[in-house]
Amino acid sequence: MGRESKSAYDASMVAFAQQYGPWALISGASSGIGASFAENLARRGLSLALVARRKSRLQALAQRLQAEHGAECLVLPEDLLNPVAPQRLQEAMAGREIGLLVNNAGYGGLGAFEQQDFATLRNMVRLNCEAVLALAHHFVPPMVERGRGGMVMVASVAGMLPCPWMSVYGATKAFDLQLGEALHVELKPKGVDVVTVCPGHTASEFHQIAGVHGPVPGREAQPEEVVALALSKLGKGNSTVEGLQNKILANAPRFFPRSWTAAVSGKVLAKRLEHLPDSKA
Fold first, then answer.
1. Is 205 a residue whose pLDDT tops 70?
2. What is the DSSP-derived secondary structure letter of residue 221?
3. Which among 41, 205, 209, 241 is most buried, taking Cβ atoms within 10 Å?
4. pTM score
5. Whole-angstrom Cα distance, residue 253 to residue 249?
6. Is the residue at 228 inside a domain?
């Protein structure tokens, strides 16, 4: 990197920290996209509040980021299905200014609707929707008061079109997408930037948690690609889709009947059913 390029890079890092620092709170930070957000933001000089259930993983991540980037990290093990968790996080961050909220925690499930456990589906709605809403409602108002800040909503391309075999997950991500795009318009004039990123198949624990074993058809994005895209669009756009194939899928409802889109989506996702244990597909 030349001297001029390095100066421009350093200036952009300073500007980012001034707008979205000094602290970033990342939910679902223990692995995958959440851990990649932590890595990227540590390089940008932000202090990090790392939130997830798995304390040991958060501690290992915090130690590495402190050693490699000198990042100040606060480990906050919380289960966001607990309705008091957002309030406890707010109390834990008292006196620390959260300039960026990464609303990333969530999980999905794959299978026939009538065969899936209701409690699991209900918790999916609670984590992917209610917890996302609660974190935003706790940490965005202080940003509005300061007149600066940002929030990244991690939705999914599944929220942009009907997803048979992932019906509830797709519905929760449609909620996240609609909420994020609306808040982008509401909060932009108040100095708070909101962007919603919609990844597709990404290298993470998503399919393991969903019960899918074996290779999954289609391109697999890397978490750092999703993170780089999201942060590049923060302050510039309301939402963004990772990957050309995902962009085509996301825009299909604009050009084709929704019934056709749902049928094609169902055929694509049905291929993943073949990798479910004891699958009847």
1. no
2. B
3. 41
4. 0.89
5. 8
6. yes
Task: Tell me the residue range of the domain where 256 lies.
Answer: 19-273
**Sole residue written with tokens 């697999």:** 220
To the nearest 10°, report the CA torsion of 68, 73, 78, 81: -80
Distance CA 270, CA 281 (A): 7
Given this model, what pLDDT does residue 246 score?
Answer: 85
245-273 in b/e burial notation, b at 16+ Cβ within 10 A?
Answer: ebbebbebbeeeeeeebbebbeeebeebe
**Residue 229's CATH number:** 3.40.50.720
Gap between the Cα atoms of 151 and 142, Å rounded: 12
Active site residue: 9, 20, 107, 169, which one? Answer: 169
Classify the C-alpha dihedral 234-202-45-86 as positive or negative: positive
Question: Has 169 been annotated as catalytic?
Answer: yes
Q: Does residue 5 sit within a domain?
A: no
Q: Give the model confidence (pLDDT) of 208-251 as tens digits.
A: 565 554 555 567 889 999 999 999 999 999 999 998 888 888 88
Q: What's the structural domain count of the chain? A: 1
